[in-house]
Specification:
Layout lengths: L2 E2 L8 E2 L6 E3 L6 E8 L4 E4 H4 L4 E4 L2 E9 L10 E2 L6 E2 L3 E4 L4 E4 H4 L12 E2 L8 E4 L22 E3 L6 E3 L8 E2 L9 E3 L9 E2 L6 E2 L4 E3 L4 E3 L1 H6 L14 E3 L3 H4 L20 E4 L4 E4 L8 E2 L9 E5 L8 E2 L6 E2 L4 E5 L5 E3 H4 L34 E4 L4 E6 L23 E3 L5 E2 L10 E3 L2 E9 L21 E3 L6 E3 H4 L3 H4 L5 E9 L6 E7 L16 E6 L4 E3 L1 H14 L1
Antiparallel strand pairs: 1-2, 3-4, 4-5, 6-7, 7-10, 8-9, 10-11, 12-13, 13-14, 14-15, 16-17, 17-20, 18-19, 20-21, 22-23, 23-24, 25-26, 26-29, 27-28, 29-30, 31-32, 32-33, 33-34, 35-36, 36-37, 37-38, 39-40, 40-41, 41-42
Length: 569
């Protein structure tokens, strides 16, 4: 029986008594198990048993790349290979110092002279930093913007935390359309604060997991695919408005309150699809509309057509032969059994054949750089605070303008000084809390900017990195590394220092005299009255402060105190 001491596992590995296939714990391929550790249920294949612990390549000659075994609870759960650009969740090689990664296939190449064109960006559609990559062999899901399926080789910007992607070609899509489904106001692509399963489509009434078009003023939201489908709505003699095709969830919408407007029955038909009037909120059974199962002659096609449902088993894309737009998987269409022709039901049943209306024709001419959510659009004496259903445009007011005692809507503490108030609602905040609406650095997280969020973005409960309690309500969030902290924890010490007094300018390597808290470097103006607790003399210029203990130290005093403690020990 062969034995192997392998760097990927702490226990000795042995050859199994019976040759059998299994899932390799390194490459996750179904292979013949070469070595195994029975107590740990750890198996590796022959190829992975010969992997080197370190590799070196010319494209990164400064340091060797060391093997890193996949861990199911690793955060982030994915890496982007710096050679092929594929996103991977398997074991990999990495340079920890430079944060460079290679998947197993690329790491074993004899030579890599040039790497993948690595780019990073923060995009309005997703909460985390996105990296230019390919989805790789495990590609699943669809683009957050266009909602089209992902292919393994398509160039995208992806998130290593969420495995979410945007096609690179979709980054330049306009963010605003004027659509006949909602003529009152333009529809805009929502940002990450309001998307990600927080809204329901006003057309198909299914939860929207992508980035929807929406009108915050009216609370109306719609899938990209539904906005496209609505342009081909069905006109039927039984109803005065356009009817919208819904491909699923009929069981959820036909019941005691909702019944078919033709047969007047609430029972669910044999089909799970139906038609829906968005204006009247009325439903129609698919069968009750009298849609022909076969059409023998039509000007748009020479062969007979049969009504059938498009299978969604793979990610292949089908297009309508009339309007030349996408046919979504699971939708009913007219299909030709003699050739590959497919057509939307609405396109085939049109009595007239006008030039097709495309979603791209509805894009407004508003420039992306002038979006209403950008703070630069507002006057300099106003600040923005993003909320779930409303963007608060804040202005400073006098304390006497408040009718009664008010509590800050961000930190929930009583307001004692002149507050800031939203121009259109009763949202009020402290003068120092409203400053959090601008991305800023924090003493607990000096590396990246923190963004004020009205509630945690993740569906799973997130814990504050300071007090370790569950996050609820307003918080500060890092889009680059997933750091999150309560506003109350972040604001601890703000009242002590004051927003108009000293400024935090850096971190400090030591702890306060109590030995419990980390400290920060601050700059005190000459007009600020504060005294060092060691020498009791006035502090101005650069100093050190513990915001939890609300204490201030001269640099020379705290250094002298640390040297004295070290000599005593």
């Amino acid at each position: 029986m062969g034995k192997l001491e392998h760097f990927s596992h702490s226990c000795p590995l042995t050859s199994p008594e019976v040759v059998a296939e299994g899932i390799c714990n390194i490459c996750f391929k179904d292979q013949v198990v070469e070595y195994a550790c029975k107590p740990c249920n750890f198996d590796i294949c022959k190829t992975c048993s010969k992997l080197p612990q370190k590799v070196s390549h010319d494209f990164h000659s400064e340091h060797p790349l060391e093997f890193c075994l996949f861990q199911y609870d690793r955060k982030p759960g994915y890496i982007v290979c710096f050679c092929c650009g594929n996103m991977s969740s398997c074991s990999f090689y990495e340079c920890k110092e430079c944060e460079i990664y290679l998947d197993l296939g690329c790491a074993l190449l004899r030579n890599i002279l040039t790497g993948w064109d690595v780019r990073e960006m923060l995009h309005y559609s997703h909460e985390h930093l996105l990296r230019r990559c390919r989805p790789g062999q495990d590609a699943r899901g669809s683009c957050l913007l266009c909602e089209l399926p992902l292919s393994p080789s398509s160039i995208c910007y992806g998130c290593v935390y969420c495995y979410s992607f945007l096609h690179e070609r979709c980054l330049d899509l306009p963010t605003e359309i004027r659509h006949p489904v909602h003529l009152e106001h333009p529809l805009r692509h929502l940002d990450y604060i309001r998307s990600g399963g927080r809204t329901f489509c006003g057309a198909c009434r299914v939860k929207i997991d992508s980035v929807p078009f929406g009108c915050l003023e009216c609370g109306f939201y719609i899938h990209m695919r539904c906005a496209d489908s609505f342009l081909r709505c069905l006109m039927h003699e039984s109803h005065e408005h356009k009817l919208f095709y819904v491909s699923s969830n009929a069981k959820e919408h036909f019941g005691r309150k909702n019944c078919c407007q033709i047969c007047l029955r609430a029972v669910v038909s044999s089909l799970n699809s139906y038609y829906h009037c968005i204006e009247c909120e009325l439903e129609f059974h698919f069968e009750c509309l009298g849609i022909s199962k076969t059409i023998l002659k039509r000007s748009c096609h020479i062969h007979p057509l049969v009504c059938k449902r498009v299978c969604g088993e793979d990610d292949s894309l089908e297009y309508c032969g009339v309007c030349e737009t996408l046919i979504h998987a699971g939708h009913h269409v007219y299909s030709c059994e003699e050739c590959d022709f497919l057509g939307h039901i609405e396109c085939i049943l049109r009595e007239k054949e006008p030039s097709p209306l495309y979603l791209k024709d509805l894009y407004s001419c508003v420039e992306d750089g002038k979006r209403a959510t950008n703070q630069e659009d507002y006057e300099t004496n106003k600040l923005m605070v993003n909320d779930i259903n409303h963007n608060h445009v804040m202005t400073s007011i006098d304390m006497c303008e408040l009718e009664d005692k008010e509590h800050c809507h961000i930190c929930e503490k009583e307001i004692l000084g002149n507050p800031w108030k939203c121009e259109t609602c009763n949202f009020v905040t402290h003068n120092f809390c409203v400053e959090l609406g601008k991305p800023s650095r924090h003493r607990f997280h000096w590396n990246h900017l923190l963004t004020l969020m009205p509630k945690p973005l993740a569906t799973d409960m997130m814990s504050c990195k300071s007090c370790r309690e569950d996050i609820k309500g307003f918080n500060l969030f890092c889009r680059i590394c997933n750091f999150i902290i309560h506003v109350s924890c972040a604001m601890r010490g703000k009242r002590f220092l004051g927003m108009l007094g000293p400024k935090v300018v850096g971190t400090w390597r030591g702890r306060c005299l109590g030995g419990k808290h980390r400290m920060v470097q601050v700059m005190f103006p000459r007009s600020y009255q504060k005294f060092c607790i060691i020498c009791h003399e006035r502090v101005f210029g650069k100093a050190v402060s513990c915001m939890e203990c609300e204490t201030v130290y001269h640099l020379r005093c705290i250094d002298r105190h640390r040297i004295k403690d070290r000599d005593c020990s």
